[in-house]
């Protein structure tokens, strides 16, 4: 005797359709999460960068020393953990090759006496031509080894034998030229309206917002450079 099927009982085909629908929904959610992650980490929003959301304009733009050079400045400090984490991406970005007519440089800040000393050390090493041997060493000593540099003697001892002697470093650190450059740190951060680090300024007028993810920040820089270079070519 064949049993009578209940009126509202789902059939195997109906159940299979429900299962397929659920699987498709879960798959769509997973894909959306993956795409969001790609946008956040790799900056796939190129072409959609807008003033106010990704960057702001300086109230008083700073003209470059050379009208033919577009300058990208990273304001930073060795004492800043975010600068330490950002530095490898900055290095890769520079090594990938800057467009002709574009110059990149770092500018230390002096938000505190200890950061002022670190900034003057950076200027000294750059002036002596031994920055490459010591730049990441200082970052790692501070943020991986919990080392503090509270005096010129401590820094001189640390860089001794790494392209320069402690005596040479100390002499250059105390030179009138380096002291003048160090004295300009606070004026520079005020001039460019720098309130936190790392801060990137493009062409003396665009400031990348600090809440923009690091990888996207460099995409914004590329976008602004392209904009400036097109404008220069048009002129």
| Ends apart, CA distance between termini | 92 Å
Strand content: 5-15%
Described by the principal axes of the CA atoms, the overall outline is globular
Low-confidence stretches: 1-7, 30-46
Radius of gyration: 26 Å
At the fold tier of CATH, the topology name of the largest domain is: Glutaredoxin
What class do helices, strands and sheet pairing give? alpha+beta
Number of helices: 9
Mean pLDDT: 86
Describe the structure.
The chain is α+β, with helices and mostly antiparallel strands and 235 residues long. The chain has 2 domains: 13-42; 55-234, 3-Layer(aba) Sandwich (Glutaredoxin), CATH 3.40.30.10. The protein has 9 helices and 5 strands, in the order αββαβααααααββα. It has helices at residues 12-42, 81-95, 113-128, 131-143, 152-159, 166-173, 176-183, 185-191, 214-234, and strands at 55-57, 70-76, 102-108, 199-202, 206-208. Strands 1-5-4-2-3 form a 5-stranded mixed β-sheet, sandwiched between helices. β4 and β5 (206-208) form a beta hairpin.
């Amino acid at each position: 005797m064949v049993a009578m099927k209940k009126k509202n009982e789902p059939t195997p085909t109906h159940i299979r359709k429900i299962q397929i629908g659920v699987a498709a929904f879960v798959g769509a959610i997973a894909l959306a999460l993956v795409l969001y992650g790609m946008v956040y980490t790799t900056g796939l929003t190129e072409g959609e960068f807008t003033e106010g959301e990704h960057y702001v304009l300086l109230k008083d733009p700073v003209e470059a020393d050379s009208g033919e050079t577009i300058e990208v400045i990273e304001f930073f400090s060795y004492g800043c953990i975010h600068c330490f984490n950002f530095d490898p991406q900055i290095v890769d970005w520079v090594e990938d090759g800057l467009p002709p007519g574009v110059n990149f440089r770092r500018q230390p800040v002096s938000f505190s006496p200890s950061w002022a000393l670190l900034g003057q050390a950076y200027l000294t090493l750059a002036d002596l031509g031994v920055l490459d041997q010591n730049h990441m060493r200082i970052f790692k000593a501070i943020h991986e080894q919990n080392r503090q540099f509270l005096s010129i003697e401590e820094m001189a001892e640390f860089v001794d034998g790494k392209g320069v002697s402690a005596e040479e470093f100390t002499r250059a650190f105390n030179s009138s030229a380096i002291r003048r450059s160090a004295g300009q740190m606070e004026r520079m951060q005020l001039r460019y309206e720098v309130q936190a680090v790392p801060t990137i300024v493009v062409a003396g007028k665009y400031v990348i917002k600090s809440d923009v993810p690091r990888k996207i920040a460099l995409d914004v820089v590329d976008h602004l450079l392209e904009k400036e270079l097109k404008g220069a070519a048009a002129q």
